[in-house]
Amino acid sequence: MTTTDPFRELREELDARAAEGLLRKRRIIAGKQQPALLADGEDMLSFCSNDYLGLASHPALIAAVQQAAQEVGVGGGASHLITGHHRLHHELEEALAHFVGMPRALFFSTGYMANLGVISALAGRGDAIFADRLNHASLNDAAVLSRADLHRYPHNDVAALEKQLARSTARRKLVVADAVFSMDGDIAPVPQLLELCERYDAWLMLDDAHGFGVLGAHGKGTLEHFGVHGPRIIYMATLGKAAGVSGAFVAGESELVEYLIQRARTYIYTTAMPPVLAAALLAALPIIEKETSRREQLQTLIATLRGNLKPKQWRLDESITPIQPLIIGSNEDALRVSEHLRERGILVPAIRPPTVPQGTARLRITLSAAHTVEDVMRLVNALHAAEGAQ
Fold first, then answer.
1. If you count DSSP H runs as helices and E runs as strands, how many of each does the chain have, helices first?
2. Same domain (yes/no): 140, 239
3. Which one of 151, 166, 234, 266 is most buried, counting C-beta atoms within 10 A?
4. How far apart are the two ends of the chain, measured CA to CA in Å?
5. Most distant CA pair in the chain, distance
6. Confidence band of 112 (pLDDT split at 50, 70, 90)
7. Can you spell out the DSSP letters for 278-318?
8. 347 three-state secondary structure
């Protein structure tokens, strides 16, 4: 019997990825999530985190977890439809719905699971999904797995989307877009998208992972930022970024949420999140809403970065959000600049294809209200030095 090496093809693919500058590595972080990190045993100033409001280590959230753990333990125990739907989960869903001004909300374990659950429940064969070309991977995967016809339109191109919607004869139409795009930091034209959905009888699903907590006068996200609302909106936001904890939620009309409880497989067939995390999120929501100084600090930091970072060879793309993309170009150059910063005690990740289009490898700078102006200026000076050394 001839034996073959079952790992040969895997090694060859890994070697090819390494040769193209696409091999990823994990860092081991010790201590709390905050700008000053211990990463792989080294003291670092991090510009990698999505903890936009600096809540991941907030004393009120820690205290909420400690108290809840004494009262309810640490495990979810079962799926929500068996015995896993705890009072704290229910209170959180009601608080989230009230927070974003929608009738009901449903708490999911992750944003990825929320997107998979919603899209696969609402769309299938004979339906059509219209997706921005720069959508997050979870939205793309969900669209493919749904078996609906997938139409991708150029980034934020409302005219192209309208042509696609006008041609469609699908039974059910679903327009899907990031509200804030995770690698570019720009914002979807939500009012125009909603107007098209109303005109062409379509749903509008928004993934506001990077807008929730950050945009709007009270941190209620992209809908508050634009002042839009409507029954056709399916609103998803994650709770492990600006909210500082974990999980995600989907908000919308009561019938929609009830339908998802019955049909969203990623909600039905998984153990409920630990109730202690719901307790932490219940503590986070009032801080998000009332402590507007955190969003003011973010805007100060964004202005500091954009006002002082003046690249000559690279390009700092337009963004009013904490995501500030510095386009370098090649994978190798992006890795080289990221390493230059690491050697000087600063962590900024190099983002490469397939996460971003070919030729647009970049440094994805993310700012937190926990940063200081001095932190940002240290980064600016290090980037100017790195560009001069190119």
1. 14, 15
2. yes
3. 234
4. 55
5. 71
6. very high
7. HHHHHHHHHHHHH-THHHHHHHHHHHHHHHH---SSSEE--
8. strand
Helices (H), 39-82: 59-72
What is the DSSP-derived secondary structure letter of residue 271? Answer: B
Amino acid at 104: R
Regarding whether 334 and 265 lie in a shared domain, the answer is no
**Residues 273, 345 share a domain:** no
Both tokens of 304, joined, read 């500091």
Q: Do residues 322 and 298 lie in contact, with contact meaning Cβ atoms separated by under 8 Å?
A: yes
pLDDT tens digits along 44-83: 999 999 999 999 999 999 999 999 999 999 999 999 999 9
Nearest to 321 by CA among 352, 351, 366, 291: 366
Q: Which residues touch 14 (CB under 8 Å, ≥6 apart)? A: 23
Query: Which amino acid would we find at residue 136?
Result: H
CB atoms < 10 A from the CB of 372, how many?
A: 13
How many CB atoms neighbour CB 378 within 10 A? 16
DSSP code for 370? T
Tokens 């070697």 belong to residue: 15
Does residue 18 fall inside a structural domain? no
Coarse DSSP helix, strand, coil percentages of the chain, rounded to the nearest 5 percent: 45, 20, 40
Residue 138: which domain range? 59-290
Last residue of a domain, one of 290, 314, 329: 290
Residues 298 and 215 in one domain: no
> What is the overall mean pLDDT for the chain?
96
Does residue 9 belong to any structural domain of this protein?
A: no
**CATH number of the domain bearing residue 181:** 3.40.640.10
Domain end, chosen from 255, 290, 325, is at 290
- What is the three-class DSSP state of 275? helix
The total domain count for the chain is 2
Query: pTM of whole model > 0.90?
Result: yes
Q: Residue 230 region, left (φ>0) first, then alpha (ψ -120 to 50), else beta? A: left
Whether residue 78 is found in the same domain as residue 144:
yes
The residues that are catalytic are 182, 210, 241
In angstroms, the CA 185 to CA 364 distance is 9
Which token pair is 156?
């934020």
